Predict the structure.
Amino acid sequence: MHPERRLKPLESRVWLKPPRVQVPPDGRKEVVQGLLARNVCGIMPLSEAFCVGGQPVLGELFEVPKSVFTSQGVEVLRLIMDLRPINENFLPLCGDLSTLPVLSQMVQLEGHPSEGLVISSEDVRAMFYII
């Protein structure tokens, strides 16, 4: 609710060059119109953007293939926004995250020769979703 509370101190903030946009220049208008039409994003003045050293901190979009095609043969892509430039200016989340289980902790378990440890994909998936 209050992201400003997690901002790094002013002297620790950095400006990172925005990543390259992978949408071809002739396709950007169509992508933006599609995002706006689906209420995925909105338009705001650049003057309201978060700035470091007077320069706006921007993320960019890129796509990842899903190996799925429509019935018309058009490849379905997952659109991702690179938030590293803005995330670099926030303090890391802490609290209980460091106490959550990770698969490498299983190495510390000691079992008797007659015992075994079974880890299912559901266990790993549950660990992921908890994080």
About this structure: The mean pLDDT is 83. Residues 99 and 131 are 10 Å apart (CA to CA). The beta strands are 51-52, 55-56, 60-69, 75-82.
